[in-house]
Predict the structure.
Amino acid sequence: MTASLTVSSAKNRERPLKLFIYIVMFFVVFLMLFPLYWIFVTALKPAVEIFAYPPKLWPGEFHWGNFLDVLRLSDFATYFKNSFIVSSIATGITLCLNLLAGYAFAKYRFKGREFFFLIMLSTMMIPLQVTMIPNFIIVSRLGLINTYAGLILPPCAEAFGLFLSRQFLSTLPNELIESGRIDGASEFSIFLKIILPNARNLVNVLVIFTFMWRWNDFQWPLILLSNSKMYTVQLGLAMLNGTNYVNWNQLMAASLLAIVPVMAVFLIFQKRFIQGMATSGIKG
């Protein structure tokens, strides 16, 4: 009887704490989601309601035509095509480079391995603005201005994905590789048939991060591109900001459309995302 009363009193003491935690979590979620909600509402408002005071939290009339106007008036379909091509190809190339390099650093023993790995990691501390001018000079001399290759190739070799790959692949047992060698498999066959099937969590993480970064990239396309036919979605959004007037409902509609591909990629690969992130940080 005494034990049950003790448990009951402990639960009663925990209830206010749980209620407080739930309230705090609710406000945090609200603050995170409200900007997205406001973008959605503004995208559906007519122009006369955007600057209404007090602000309307729900459109008086739904203007779904704002989305069609964006695609028709600002050549956004071309911008989406360019961003999709750049992001998809860049994700594939970056994935191959990171996985191969991470596998080499994780499972092969060679002179200077730790030194070269630290050099690669140190590049993460270099601001992007420092490397933009040298990259632009190289791309310009190669004649890759206003091309997909110029947009895709320079940022493909990045240290963050290499770090995640090395950390994750270090957790795989060496016995898997040794068994493949005993069976007579080549090193590349071991990588394709043994390592990759066991690195699906890592692949999902790299795909989500890389696609998101490349889709949202603004600075490099801004520097490299002068032909409007090669503009990406982020440059297209910047072009919607007029000098004297901003059509906010169309800008918000375009912003929502720009979010959709990133959300789709995350929903496709999110099943193993958290597990992959957790595993990648286990070992140093």
Notes: Residues 280-284 have pLDDT under 50 and may be disordered. The first helix runs from residue 2 to 44. DSSP finds 15 helices and no strands in the chain.
